[in-house]
Write a structure and sequence with these properties.
325 residues; 63% helix; 12 helices; single chain; diguanylate cyclase; alpha+beta; GGDEF_dom; Alpha-Beta Plaits
């Protein structure tokens, strides 16, 4: 008894006949995907060609299959994400195995159909059975490819998370020095004016010496979150140790100073106590220096030097203040 076909099993064959394409495994795959998943890359590419009633030509069909094949996809993905950590590389290998398995299934189907083509043309085989087997193998290959795509999505998410972690300061969650340098380079490339501010926690060494590094870390986190809140939508990073950087794509130095003074005032209005003993810690404050950069990379270097000098002037003039270059 011949295998029973799904109700829409003949539709891909009708599609091929309508467009005068040979009923090869590759063309059948194209037709099946285009009809069953019109939102897929293959489905959209086919739809663009036949939207105005045009027939799809064999060379166009070949191009679509080649452009959206598994080999092209995974090759492009690997090139885009060349620097993977060891555990992510392992996942890539797993995905490659899935893709290879799906490709093997498609290749096996093509070989089987080729072997039976002669028999079919001589009337010695049941065409319904062959098409049914084609459908079954295609669905199996599609399932493997779907699994591979799901793993690719997971891998991309993990890559993005790893990339974000690599650019974040572990203690504060702010941008780290690597991210800061990249952001400054991007602004320099655009050549647009930017205000750069360097801020340093006042008397931080005495905090560490008196209360220990655990309390010192909490103070760093507190100042970091206060600066981030006051400078909403601006770039805030940890420059190093107890020092922070704020970058605003603007030439308005006064606006940056205003935001930094808001952060200073917030700290001044807060009564800090030790968690363990409830002992008052006194004022937590910071000093800052602000400078304007206009131009390329050298402008960043100059502005950072100017901001650093302004910061130390603020320290010399009594701390807990913001000065511009």
């Amino acid at each position: 008894m011949s295998a029973k076909l799904p109700e829409d099993a003949a539709k891909p064959l009708e599609f091929l006949a309508r467009h005068r394409l040979a009923a090869t495994p590759q063309n059948y795959t194209l037709a099946y995907v285009a009809l069953s998943d019109p939102g897929s890359p293959i489905g959209r590419a086919v739809a663009e060609i036949i939207a105005e009633g045009y027939r799809i030509k064999q060379e166009e069909a070949d191009h679509i299959l080649e452009a959206h094949g598994t080999t092209t996809f995974f090759g492009a993905y690997e090139r885009k994400n060349g620097e993977l950590s060891a555990h992510l590389r392992h996942q890539t290998i797993k995905i490659g195995e899935l893709a290879s398995s799906a490709a093997d299934a498609t290749g096996a189907l093509a070989r089987e159909l080729s072997e039976e083509a002669t028999t079919l043309s001589g009337g010695g085989a049941d065409s319904t059975s062959i098409v049914a087997r084609m459908i079954e193998h295609s669905l199996q290959a599609q399932a493997r490819l779907t699994a591979a795509m799901d793993e690719v999505k997971t891998l991309r998410e993990e890559l993005e998370a790893a990339r974000n972690d690599a650019q974040r300061d572990e203690l504060t969650g702010l941008a780290n020095r690597r991210a800061i340098d990249a952001h400054l380079a991007e602004l320099a490339e655009k050549g647009e004016p930017r205000v750069i501010a360097l801020c340093d926690i006042d008397h931080f060494k005495s905090v560490n010496d008196r209360y220990g590094h655990g309390v010192g870390d909490r103070v760093i986190k507190l100042v970091a979150s206060t600066l981030e809140d006051a400078c909403t939508a601006q770039f805030v990073g940890r420059w190093g140790g107890e020092e922070f950087i704020v970058i605003m794509p603007s030439s308005d130095i006064a606006a940056v100073i205003k935001r930094l003074n808001q952060a200073r005032q917030t700290l001044a209005d807060t009564k800090f106590k030790l968690r363990e003993t409830d002992e008052p810690m006194g004022l937590i404050s910071f000093s800052g220096g602000v400078a304007l950069a206009v131009g390329g990379k050298q402008a960043n270097v100059t502005a950072l030097q100017q901001a650093d000098k302004a910061l130390y002037r603020a320290k010399d003039e009594g701390r807990n203040c913001i000065l511009s270059a």
